[in-house]
Amino acid sequence: MKEDFDVDGELGFEPAVSATGAEPRETPGETTPGETPRETERPKRGRRGGLRRRLGAGAIIAAALASMGGAYAAFATTSGASDTTTGAQDIAAGKQLYETSCITCHGANLQGVKDRGVSLIGVGGAAVYFQVSTGRMPASGQGAQQSRKTAKFDEQQTNQIAAYVQSIGGGPTLPTGSLRDGNIAEGGNLFRLNCASCHGTTFKGAPLSAGKTAPSLNQASDQQIYAAMLTGPENMPVFSDNQLTPAEKRQIVNYVQTLKASKDPGGNGIDRIGPVSEALVIWVGGVGALMIAILWIGAKAQ
Predict the structure, then answer these.
(1) Angle of helix 246-261 relative to helix 184-194, nearest 10 degrees?
(2) pLDDT tens across 162-190, in order?
(3) Could you tell me if residue 202 is inside a domain?
(4) Are 252 and 244 in contact (CB under 8 A)?
(5) Is residue 167 in some structural domain?
(6) pLDDT tens figures, 274-293
(7) Same structural domain, 178 and 268
(8) Which of 108, 120, 125, 182 could disulfide-link 251, Cβ–Cβ 3.0 to 4.6 Å?
(9) Of 162, 154, 169, 155, which is closest to residue 95 (Cα–Cα)?
């Protein structure tokens, strides 16, 4: 009896249920009947395997994103560097042209020189483009107004000078792309309201006060017309984007350039004053020629 008590406990057997009614706890690694140790550890191994798969998939995605980002950064950096180099070359070329032809009147730092030339700080590349492309600058002499003449610089050199002044002094620049857009009729309304009083309905220009004139638009390019509205050269007012929006400026350019390129219906309009002008010229010229013939015949008869 002593041996049974020592082996099986006080009761002499292993109870199926504890005295408190709770199920007996299994020790680690202990199996229930019908189970093997492999089946007991399977859920833990399954959880560990799923975690490893998720971590592996995340690492693969992260590596792929890093590779794509690196490739994009490499290409983007190369493209940007090329554009920056081109701009720097234009500015350097513009600086050389400026120091050759402009520095005497406008100063080494664009500050202007008294009794020679105005400051270029803040005028912008648009103003430089207008003045240089129309031949007004470099100026041939001092005066209240510079007239249009053959440009000293070609289109590329003009843009280079404008780029240099823009890089130092800032200011308005010409937009890129086409400057003709919008409804022509609306452009005509805007032109008659804002421009015709000085430039005339036929774009020939007109005299102003103090010996100045509003120049003709018949030789002006799209960029020159837009730049003039944007910067207000000489006596011309500045039409900011609050007064004329970029779209309205394009409509005016479209109207002027389209009308210049079109022909008058009904024959030669004689500077677009109307097709009736042909008959008027013929009438006046014909009557004048007839009177001259009559006087000549009368003189011969005497």
Answers:
(1) 100
(2) 999 999 999 999 998 999 999 999 999 99
(3) yes
(4) yes
(5) yes
(6) 656 667 777 888 888 989 99
(7) yes
(8) 182
(9) 162
With 0-12 / 13-18 / 19 or more C-beta atoms within 10 angstroms meaning exposed / middle / buried, residue 74 is exposed
CATH code where residue 145 lies: 1.10.760.10
- What is the per-residue pLDDT across 91-147, written as a single tens digit (0 to 9) for each? 999 999 999 999 999 999 999 999 888 999 999 999 999 999 999 999 877 776 788
Same domain, 151 and 221: no
Range of the domain at 205: 174-274
Cα angle 172-223-231, degrees, rounded to a multiple of 5: 35
Query: How many domains does the chain fold into?
Result: 2
Model confidence, pTM: 0.63
Distance CA 153, CA 168 (A): 20
Q: What share of the chain is helix, strand, coil (3-state, %, to 5)?
A: 55, 0, 40
Kindly state whether residue 94 falls inside one of the protein's structural domains: yes
Place of tokens 């070329």: 93
